[in-house]
Design goal:
It contains 11 helices and 3 strands. Helix content is 33%, strand content 5%. Helix 2 crosses helix 3, helix 2 packs antiparallel against helix 4 and helix 2 runs antiparallel to helix 7. It is mainly α and 294 residues long. Among the domains are: 130 residues, no CATH class; 46 residues, no CATH class. A 3-stranded antiparallel beta sheet has the order 1-2-3, with no helix packed on it.
């Protein structure tokens, strides 16, 4: 790590530190999918077809499911839970047609992260997910999932189920979600606390004045854009940097997709926050001003 960078949270803190816990979760998912295979949705089928019809992608996707990431070198099993392309896309197909279930691990709310933890940690996986066509298709798949999460069917996990429900008593009386009904706009007397979809729950609002803005008339203050905890802080950032190495320095041109305005931030400071899936997920402008590029 460079001397001008300090990390306040372990990289990948949104996944369990215990790799066995993570692999067990993925294994259970794979077993469930294999026991009840379903036809691929159009967006997942398109993604799979892209991979199968492109020799380079086909090679990379196969290799990323067989290579061993460095962080798993000491894993006695030495193999991933998703071991072939057919299973990978069946798993994707399942995940984008259901709402995340609640669990007590850091992985809560991020099932696709769990599935990709192994393959994206490989050399082949890193190369595959640098491809524009892969990312474009992945975006379409995530958009399809996002659309599902706006439907009433996505309320299936907004229950008091003690194992998987987002309103189970243990969750509502602990941690950041204690006193849920006092903090967030909802109605505990209605089904699903009044939320009409999982997305409505996920992007829930605070009751007025729960989070007043600090110094709203003083532009010298930058407020947190969301309920994020500090993840990293780096000063004197460069326009171009080796963002793929272990220290993960910030490369402004890549972060801003080569926007001409990127050069204005050279030598500046990057603050990166960590946003847990259980946190408030509405975003607010941290400063006053005008958006000129996005």
């Amino acid at each position: 790590m460079s001397t001008n960078s300090r990390r306040t949270r372990r990289i990948g803190g949104w996944l369990p530190a215990d790799q066995t816990e993570l692999k067990n979760w993925v294994r259970t998912l794979v077993e469930r999918v294999k026991a009840n295979p379903t036809p691929l949705s159009p967006v997942v089928q398109d993604f799979k077809t892209l991979v199968q019809n492109d020799p380079e992608l086909y090679m990379l996707f196969n290799e990323m499911l067989t290579q061993v990431p460095s962080k798993y070198i000491d894993d006695p099993s030495g193999v991933p839970e998703v071991r072939d392309i057919d299973t990978l896309f069946q798993v994707f197909n399942q995940l984008i047609q259901e709402a995340p279930t609640y669990n007590t691990s850091p992985q809560v709310g991020t099932p696709i992260n769990a599935v990709l933890d192994w393959p994206m940690g490989t050399t082949a996986g890193f190369a595959a997910f640098l491809k524009d066509n892969v990312n474009a298709q992945f975006k379409k798949m995530l958009q399809a999932w996002g659309q599902f999460l706006t439907t009433p069917a996505s309320c299936a996990t907004l229950t008091t189920n003690p194992l998987s429900g987002w309103f189970n008593k243990a969750k509502l009386h602990s941690g950041v979600l204690a006193d849920f009904a006092v903090v967030f706009e909802c109605n505990p007397l209605e089904p699903h606390y009044g939320y009409t979809s999982w997305d409505a729950y996920f992007t829930r609002r605070f009751w007025p004045m729960i989070r007043p803005v600090a110094y709203p008339d003083d532009d010298s203050y930058i407020v947190n854009a969301c309920e994020a905890a500090a993840f990293n802080w780096q000063e004197n950032v460069n326009l171009l940097d080796t963002f793929w190495i272990k220290a993960q320095p910030y490369s402004l041109a890549h972060m801003m997709n080569n926007d001409p305005n990127a050069k204005l931030f050279v030598g500046g400071t990057v603050y990166q926050g960590f946003l847990s899936a259980t946190s408030y997920h509405r975003w607010h402008a941290p400063v006053s001003g005008k958006i000129v590029s996005a």
